[in-house]
TrEMBL record:
Pathway: Cofactor biosynthesis; adenosylcobalamin biosynthesis; adenosylcobalamin from cob(II)yrinate a,c-diamide: step 7/7. Keywords: Cell membrane, Cobalamin biosynthesis, Magnesium, Membrane, Transferase, Transmembrane, Transmembrane helix. InterPro entries: CobS (IPR003805). GO terms for cellular component: plasma membrane. It is a multi-pass membrane protein. The gene is cobS. This is Adenosylcobinamide-GDP ribazoletransferase. Its main location: membrane. The lineage of its organism: Bacteria, Pseudomonadati, Bacteroidota, Flavobacteriia, Flavobacteriales. It catalyses: alpha-ribazole + adenosylcob(III)inamide-GDP = adenosylcob(III)alamin + GMP + H(+); alpha-ribazole 5'-phosphate + adenosylcob(III)inamide-GDP = adenosylcob(III)alamin 5'-phosphate + GMP + H(+). The keyword Transmembrane applies. Belongs to the CobS family. Its EC number is 2.7.8.26. It comes from the Bacteria.
């Protein structure tokens, strides 16, 4: 039990900026297993983001509340996944060989492709949320964070991580997920669907997992696998796919 608590707080420290006990550190032994709690991190970040939307919407419009909610999630994670998405936009947008793509992604500077990628994804999130019934938005925000991280765990379970041989913390945290850890993510992640009254919400998982499969195939084609930036991009893109899928289902079901 103590070991699992240590792993959980290691995940919380690595993936968020929330305060953790002083004894929590980035011990590679625990960091390597922290991926089993991706979905739970989604619950935490998503719940706070949804709470920010609820409070903000008492004073502001849906659009402003959606922006504040997204800003809260960015602050909670230190733009961890957004930065990864921008790096992927730059790398795959400006590179034409494996070596060039990885080199660009490692560059701390942000290029045109990265800026446009992050702008488009964030704007689409805002407009998608603003187009939903206001009473459903908090649950949708929470679910987007939970389910997108569940999808990330599926990619990690595939393996094929591209090592840069720097022994970085990101490399340790992105190691291949065990079947047990994947199962834990699925149990924690899918539990969010119990809060929806309609069965159709399960259909949103299909486009999310298809997106993950296509991105994995794309990464593997160009660089032979994935790295930490690729994983963060999957979280951001599948979160957006969830919001868009919910919108489509509301219109046609």
């Amino acid at each position: 039990m103590k070991r699992e608590i240590r792993i959980l707080f290691t995940a919380l420290m690595f993936f968020t900026r929330l305060p953790c006990p002083k004894w929590t550190d980035h011990d590679p032994v625990y960091l390597k297993e922290s991926g089993r709690y991706f979905s739970l991190i989604g619950w935490i970040v998503g719940a706070i983001s949804a709470g920010v939307f609820l409070v903000s919407n008492l004073l502001f419009s849906i659009e402003i509340s959606a922006v504040l909610s997204i800003a809260a999630s960015i602050g909670l994670t230190g733009a961890f996944h957004e930065d990864a998405l921008a790096d992927v936009g730059d790398g795959f947008g400006g590179g034409w060989t494996k070596e060039k793509i990885i080199l660009i992604m490692k560059d701390p500077r942000l290029g045109t492709f990265g800026v446009l990628t992050i702008m488009l994804v964030v704007l689409l999130k805002i407009f998608a949320l603003a187009d939903m019934p206001v009473h459903q938005i908090p649950l949708v925000i929470l679910s987007g964070h939970v389910l997108s991280r569940l999808v990330v765990s599926r990619m990690l379970a595939r393996g094929n991580y591209i090592s840069n041989h720097t022994n970085s913390k990101s490399e340790t945290a992105a190691s291949k997920l065990s079947t047990r850890s994947l199962l834990i993510n699925f149990i924690i992640g899918l539990s969010i669907l119990c809060f929806f009254k309609n069965w159709w919400v399960f259909l949103t998982l299909l486009p999310m997992f298809i997106t993950e499969a296509l991105l994995y195939r794309y990464y593997k084609k160009w660089i032979g696998g994935y790295n930490g930036d690729c994983i963060g991009a999957v979280q951001q893109i599948t979160e957006l796919v969830f919001y868009l899928s919910v919108l489509m289902l509301w219109k046609f079901i």
